[in-house]
C-alpha cells in the first residue's frame, strides 16, 4: 500500500484505509482503557486516574494523527498510550491488593499508595 501512495488516484484510497485502520485500533483499545481507568479510580484514587485518562485521550489523538501520515509516525503515540494503560492497570492491581489487605489483615496502606501514585502520575508527562 505504501508504494501506491505516489499515484494521485490511489493516494485518497490509501489515506482512507489508514484512517479506517486507526479508527479500528482506537475502538479496540477503548474498552480496555475504560475498564482500567474505572477500576483505578474506584479502587485507589480518582485524581491520578482522571489525569492519566486525559493524557491517554490526548495521546490517542496524537496516535491517530500520526497514523494518517505514515504508520511509523504513530509509534510514539502507541507506545506512550501503552505506558499509560500500564500505569492505570498497576493502579488497579495495587488498589485491589490494598482492599484485600484491609479486609483480611486490617492494615491499610491506601494513604501511602495515593501519595506515590499522585507523584507518579506527573511522571507520565515524560515521553
Give a short synopsis of this structure.
With 127 residues, this protein is an all-alpha fold. The chain is 81% helix and 0% strand. The radius of gyration is 19 Å and the shape is elongated.
| Beta strands, count | 0
Q: What's the pLDDT, averaged over the residues?
A: 82
Into which percentage range does the β-strand content fall? under 5%
SSE order: HHHH
Distinct helical segment count: 4
Report the structural category: mainly alpha
Largest sheet: none
Fraction of residues in helix: over 70%
Distance separating the two termini: 30 Å
Description:
With 127 residues, the protein is mainly alpha-helical. Helices cover 81% and strands 0% of the residues. It has four helices and no strands. It has helices at residues 8-43, 46-68, 75-105, 110-122. α1 packs antiparallel against α2, α1 (8-43) runs parallel beside α3 and α3 packs antiparallel against α4. The chain starts with 7 loop residues before the first helix and ends in a 5-residue tail after the last helix.
How would you describe this structure in keywords?
single chain, mainly alpha, 4 helices, 0% strand
